[in-house]
Amino acid sequence: MKKVITLLFISGLLCGTAPAESLTLSVDKEKVVLGDGIYLSLNFEGAQDLPAPDLGTVDGFSSSRYLGPSSNLTIINGKSSASVSHAYLLAAVKTGTFNIGPFTVDYKDKQYTSNAITIEVVDKPASPANVNNREGEESRAEAKNIGDKIFLVIQPEKRKVYINEKFNLSIKLYVKDLDIRLSRGGVPQISHDGFSLAQFSQPRQYKDMLNGVYYDVVDFSVETFAVKSGELSLGPANFECYLMVKPERQRRLPSFGAFDGLIDDSLFEDFFGAARTQPLNLDAAGVGVVVSPLPEENKPANFNGAIGGFNLDAQAGPPEVSVGDPITLRLAVSGKGNFDTVTTPGLGLSENDFKVYEPRITNGENSKIFEYVVMPKTEKVTAIPGISFSFFNTADGRYSTIEKGPFPITVSKGRAETQKIVEQNPATQKTTVTQVLGRDIIYIKDLAGALRKKGHYLFKNRIFWLLQFLPLLCFVIVSLINKHYRRLMVDDAYAKKLKAPSVAAKGLKTAAAFLSDSKSREFYETLFKTLQQYLGYKLRLPWRGITVDIAGLLESKGWDKEIIDSLKHIFGQCDMARFSSQQFEPASMKEDLKTVKKIIDYSERRLK
Amino acid sequence: MKTFIPTAIIAVFLLCASAHAQSGIDKTGFYRANLYYEEGKYDNALKLYSDIAGKGYESANLYYNIGNCFYKKSDFPRAALFYERARRLAPSDADLNSNHELVISQLTQSYKTGEKNNLEKFIDWLYASFAPDGLAIFIAILNILLFSLLAGRLFLPAFKKQFFYLAAALFLLMGLGIYDLFSRSQLFGKEAVIIAEKANVKFEPGNAAVTHFTIYGGEKVILVEDKGQWLKVKRLDGKLGWIRKEELEII
User: Quick check: is B113 in a domain?
Assistant: First the structure.
């Protein structure tokens, strides 16, 4: 009956539902300052399951940010109405008057169109502080949209470079009167086909004037050089930062129709009132850079590709040596340019006169040092010949050659048949007899070794790892056994309690033997002793003192009367057999043996 | 119970032994290859050795001999590759290490090595000479010893303290061994050797990309990412870049 009433009630509700479906657009304000956000609400009356519509691009505003849905169901006089409201945040990025909407949504094969709203976006009025601090600035051209307030610029140090010439590339983010946040470690992405880019350095922040307007500048700088010639382009570049959108406080939120009164406005404002980040994607157009190849004319024969403005410092020492002694020749190339292009300068030493070792190269911030170790082979050598280093000077667009030396040396005759081995550190040089040893690989293995299937490793076998728990398991078992034996050793009562069943079994076995021999006296003596020992061990009492009086104790422990009577009977039988000469029938003895077994079984269950 | 523990221990060792069980492969090919090698017919020897490897079998000696063949054919990068494969199975083989060192010294450029922290150096000092299977068995033995010591504490309480310190040391050794084994297993299938004489490692996958650095034959790299015909690799000194697949081979 109740179910029927409930069903009738629900069907009544359904009948009373008035599906007046409509889509309404509302905003929290119709006039907004450039860079600020507005809250937009799309309210759909008639259903709660309308999915959030995609607003797409709204002219004058950044891409919308969906904040979430709110649904409502009201029942008034048996009529129910359902609605859902989807909230969005939009940031104004251009000044002017813009239309938002109408938006169209499809729901259950029907199309609903919302109303449109006109929003005016005005420029931020200059604060008095700004006027005082930046006098004269106000007369300059005012920024009219967000693109004038925040933009990205690619600025190469040079627009005309030579191939492999190093230059600085700056990607600058100009910001005016906007609160923005940069992601930690984020750098602009730049297309750099034909250029090699190093890592971006930490961005610098400073103020800069551009077209008479002061901007805050974030300067991302990177060293680059072109790897091919031609008219190339650096860029376009892209950078993502976050605009902090701060809605105005103490302002009434948009009407949410049926929500009015149901939602605490102050709570709602607290929730939405905090500054929100709005991602802002900035693009910078590419910048053309003309990359010239190095001229062929006047190219020195020893030019190895070094590009920049360099100096060469050369030193050789010691000036007086014996044959086979090392002389260190230090060539330091310093200056400004692409040190990657500065390769080992050739010494051009005669193989008959000198033995030359590979140089040790040290890279400094603005220098590259080559340290050669050369050894005169003959005393006829009087000097290390001059060294020349050629490079292309990008400052004047010409090849330059620096010459150093020759370096006079005096070589005396060395010790016969000895030669010095040069170590890395001259201080630890040792003179040894050079022994020329050949070197080759060690011969093949005769046996194939343990050939097995590839990749069949023991550690990949799950059973192997499962077996590793075995020692732990053994340990646990050994611990338990150890604990048991320890208790047996120190706890006599525990030991006896455990011993009682075995004593009983042994006694009953002996009694059974006497029974088969029809020795009634021995049979009852054994039964008596067995019961004494068994009950003594079980009850932790001295077993020799146990008599029929134990029945009282057992009674107090709640033993069955039948068992106690049986016990009394057995003790009586035993006394009779032990203290009189009465003979017992085997059938009676057998029955008594059964009774004792029954008492012990019962006791085992009771006294665990 | 008396027979359970010894049975369990024997089971562990039997399992270990089964992993090393000799395959029923005919080894005559190996010995014939040895004869070819003696005669200086390295191509023939290489073919026979490779046949065995091609059937899915491996051993340190097989890889060692293949490495020797490549060395004799002056293909040093491939020799380095096979010595690396052999070193994974027998890292303490003196002949193998000598040959590997020689082949590395023959390669045109210096061999880059990664920096290791003190803990890694200590683990290397402890376990570098163990092959993965050897290390697994060693860990199993340490495990048995550890619990034997703990059990010993129960029966010899007078030496409780000594047993505890010993057990703690064994536990530490075992933990480091498991860590090392795990680290090695993570590199399986990810370590490769450059087999081209010289290869350009690019900033991006693609022939048109700018060269980041040049890598030379025989150098070891770690694979990071796979993208079509290109692989992102990390050199042992930490430098990352993209290289064509055919220029390297997985160890």
Answer: no
Q: Burial code of B141-170, b = ≥16 C-beta within 10 A, e = fewer?
A: ebbbbbbbbbbbbbeeeeeeeebeebbeeb
Verify whether the Cβ–Cβ distance A450 to B20 is below 8 Å: yes
Residues in chain B with CB shorter than 8 Å from the CB of A424 are: none
Range of the domain at B54: 26-106
User: Which domains are present in chain A?
Assistant: 17-122 (2.60.40), 139-289 (2.60.40), 307-432 (2.60.40), 490-606 (1.20.120)
B192 touches chain A (CB under 8 A): no
Which phi and psi (to 5°) does residue A289 adopt?
-130, 130
Q: Which residue of A has its CA nearest to B136?
A: A459
Task: Please give, rounded to a whole number of angstroms, the shortest distance from the CA of A467 to a CA of chain B.
Answer: 7
Paired tokens of B118: 């003190």
CB contact under 8 A, B23 and A452: yes
In chain B, residues with a C-beta closer than 8 Å to the C-beta of A446 are 34
Interface of A with B in 556-575 (CB under 8 A): none
Q: Which of B4, B16, B46, B61 to probe the A interface (max A CBs under 10 A)? A: B61
Secondary-structure breakdown of chain A: helix, strand, coil percentages, each rounded to the nearest 5: 30, 35, 35
Note whether A459 contacts B34, CB cutoff 8 Å: no
List the 134-173 stretch of A: residues with Cβ below 8 A of B.
Answer: none
**B14 and chain A in contact, CB less than 8 A:** no
Does one domain contain both B179 and B195? no
Answer yes or no: is B18 within a domain. Answer: no
What are the chain A neighbours of B12 within 8 Å (beta carbons)?
464, 467, 470
- For residue A246, what pLDDT band results from cuts at 50, 70 and 90? low
H-run or E-run covering A240: strand A237-245
Number of residues assigned to chain A: 608
Residue-by-residue pLDDT tens, chain B, 251 positions: 445 555 555 555 555 555 444 445 678 888 889 999 988 899 999 999 999 999 889 999 999 999 999 999 989 999 999 999 999 999 989 999 999 988 888 775 556 666 778 888 899 899 988 999 999 999 999 999 999 988 888 888 888 888 889 999 999 999 999 999 998 888 888 999 999 888 889 998 988 888 888 888 888 899 999 988 999 999 888 889 999 999 999 99
Which of A442, A450, A470 has the CB atom closest to B95's CB atom? A442
Tell me: do B140 and B202 sit in the same domain.
no
What dihedral do alpha carbons B66, B71, B77, B82 form, nearest 10°?
Answer: 20
For residues B167 and B153, state if they share a domain: yes
ipTM score here? 0.79
Alpha carbon distances (Å) from A429 to A409, A419, A422: 21, 12, 6
The amino acid sitting at B4 is: F
Q: Tell me, yes or no, whether B78 lies in a domain.
A: yes
pTM over 0.90: no
